[in-house]
Amino acid sequence: MTRFLLAVALLVAAASPAQAAAPRWVGTWATAPSSALPGNENGYPNFSIRNIVHVSAGGKEIRVRLSNAYGRTPVFFGRVTVARAAGPGSPSALPGTMRTLTFGGAQSITAPPGADVVSDGVALTVPADSDLLVSVFTPEPGGPATHHALAMQDSYFTRDGDHTTDESSAAFREQTPNWHYVSGVDVRTSTLRGSVVALGDSITDGANSTRNANLRWPDQLADRVNTRLGVLNAGISGNRLLLDGGTAGPNALARLNRDVLTQSGVRTVIVFEGINDIQQTPHQTDPAKIIAALRQIAQRSHDRGLRVVGATITPFKGWYSYTAELEEVRQAVNAWIRTAPAFDAVVDFDKVIRDPSDPQRIRPDYDEGDHLHPGDKGFEAMAKAVDLAVL
For residue 247, what are the contacts with CB-CB under 8 A and spacing of at least 6? Predict the structure, then answer.
């Protein structure tokens, strides 16, 4: 009888559905802090800054990441709030959605120089593909402020004290093109498979995309996958693989840990870097050095258990620094990327973006005019080129 009952129990267990996954934190929005704000030695004493950020995947509980990565003094965050925006790009909060964040149960927290901090979770239903307001009050001097320089999104601020809990945007009369302090938003979920990080430069950052429209290629990729994956943008305009670049941030190898490997729930990284090593002064004319850096990114990401998708470098003929010699470097790197065993998969952005009649150029209908950065239509083509099965 005992053996019979055991056999029945085993059959029932085998036929039962798998236990639901435990909830975990997964990134739904991120930006890579690019530098200390120039000329901002004292930070923003008595300012409230209302950052507008656009999440990819949704959830019912969220938390926020703040960064003092480039600060040389501690930053005291006196109050931080999060709310759903009243509408796309609106600095007004949807009534009833304002939440004050805590840090270990406390309303305020001090971030030492070079440090990031993460809030406690708070209940707030956030739809996929929607805008959030992350408002930060810094009552004391503490600088320079860490920011992301090319947000392609207008945010707002006031110099008149703590207005972080205001649902109205009336106090936020001044505008900024940057994101200040905020570096990430996570959702707690049992349904998302994880997050995908796009590591790149200005093309990933969204240069030449329509402002306040969230049409960067990672945004448009998110529209394809946001029911199962968060998409995080770690692009910095001007960023290079091998050299630091002032407001263009540290080189990609130096920032890999902060901007990719420690993101919440990360499972895949898409690596799309190298054009600035080639086209910026000093030019990198040895493709082997660029390839070595890409190989390092792949190896370190694999060591953390991530999938790595390599992306070919897109054309730049017509850009002011283009030469035939530099084009040969790009072609050599791309030839390696297309066949490299270092990557789990490849997305051939070069093939997608190039003009079939002049392959060293961007297709005219994808080119916004500077011959380096695609526009919205080009970003759409890039997003559609990513094979979702490899993510």
Answer: 34, 35, 38, 149, 237, 238
Longest dimension (CA), the chain: 84
The residues, any chain, with a CB within 8 Å of residue 358's CB and separated by 6 or more, are 317
Cα–Cα dist 282/238, whole Å? 13
Summarised one tens digit per residue, pLDDT across range 93-105 is: 999 999 999 999 9
pLDDT at residue number 246: 84
8 A C-beta contact, residue 233 and residue 301: no
Q: Which region holds residue 181: left if phi is over 0, alpha if psi is between -120 and 50, else beta?
A: left
pLDDT, residue 19, reads 55
What pLDDT was estimated at residue 20?
Answer: 62
pLDDT in tens, 36-63: 999 999 999 999 999 999 999 999 999 9
Asked whether the predicted pLDDT for residue 135 surpasses 70, the reply is yes
Identify the bridge partners of residue 245 per DSSP, sorted by sequence position: none
Residue 347's identity, in one-letter code, is V
Distance CA 160, CA 294 (A): 46
Query: For 134, phi and psi rounded to 5 degrees?
Result: -110, 110
Return d(Cα 91, Cα 83) in angstroms, integer.
10
Alpha-carbon span 258 to 276, nearest angstrom: 21
Paired strand residues for 24: 189
Name which of 177, 288, 185, 312 is nearest 237 in CA terms: 177
Beta-carbon contacts of 262 under 8 Å, excluding residues fewer than 6 positions away, are none
- Pull the structure tokens for residue 252: 């990609």
Question: What sign results for the dihedral spanned by CA atoms 280, 284, 288, 294?
Answer: negative
Quick one: which of 44, 51, 89, 40 has its CA closest to 183?
51
pTM of full prediction above 0.85:
yes
| DSSP tag of 257 | I
What Cα–Cα distance (Å) separates residue 317 from each residue in 158, 171, 322, 330?
A: 43, 46, 6, 11
Residue 106: beta bridge partners?
103
Rounded CA separation 90/249 (Å):
29
* Block residue for tokens 């692009």: 235
